[in-house]
């Protein structure tokens, strides 16, 4: 909305966070809720996200869910009655949550927020944590979209990336997702250590063969303060990775994906 009397809507939204009572909008923009789960089974050597290897026997699920609820309660004055139309539960590895824990998290969100009846509720999932029964329960609790961290379908590359799952588990995860969820995304990375253009093509072709509604395809970057920054692996040079990127653009477009 760029009406001159109210000014650009985005500026008013920013104001809402500092002074909820002072804005004058004709309609309130919907909100999206992001919930972070900061633990993983193992820290991947390329990853600079806020994610930490959980070294104990079991992570403190109940205490974390209590803290999330308290955090959301404190944020309620900023919600100001607005509808929430998407929830994204990311990480880390939120698919480590128990079925009961995830159910409690969504029940708390529904109790505290005006959530759209058809809200998109996404859970980020690692193929090393897929149990068909648990994912069916996630679906029953209201999760209606999965975002799966595949990274590659190639055994050697998964090892080089320090992933906790193998290629078979990557494929099984997509099969379980496709069976239980109409909507799912696959994350893959390219320009992996020692990866060739043919290997990159093979990964993308495999991903497309599952007809995911969405694909997130990331060029591997060596991020500061990661193991890969400290001990850089032999990644494809700029020309080779540009060839991969060009091919990916053409192939995904020909498969009907819009950027
Ligand atoms: C927030 S991460 C979490 C995904 C999930 N924890 C997993 O790994 O299965 C989202 C995505 O970012 C991408 N990513 C993470 N680190 C990256 C890096 N250094 N370079 C490129 N992509 C990266 C990966 O594809 C990953 O699946
Ligand atoms: S599982 Fe995902 S969030 Fe966790 S360390 Fe690996 S890439 Fe990062």
Q: State the CATH topology.
A: TIM Barrel
Largest sheet: 6 strands, parallel
For the record, what CATH class applies?
Alpha Beta
Shape: globular
Q: Number of helical segments?
A: 9
Tell me which ligands are bound.
Answer: S-adenosylmethionine, iron/sulfur cluster
Strand line-up in the sheet with most strands: 1-4-5-6-7-8
Oligomeric state of the chains in view: single chain
Cα-atom Rg, whole angstroms? 20 Å
Structure summary, number of beta strands: 8
* SSE pattern, N- to C-terminal: HEEEHEHEHEHHEHEHH
CATH architecture: Alpha-Beta Barrel
Describe this structure in words.
By secondary structure, the chain is of the alpha/beta class. The protein has one domain (29-254): TIM Barrel. It contains nine helices and eight strands. Strands 1-4-5-6-7-8 form a six-stranded parallel sheet. It has a two-stranded parallel sheet with strand order 2-3. Strand 4, helix 3 (99-112) and strand 5 (115-125) form a beta-alpha-beta unit. Helix 2 runs parallel beside helix 3. The radius of gyration is 20 Å and the shape is globular. Residues 1-18 have low confidence and may be disordered.
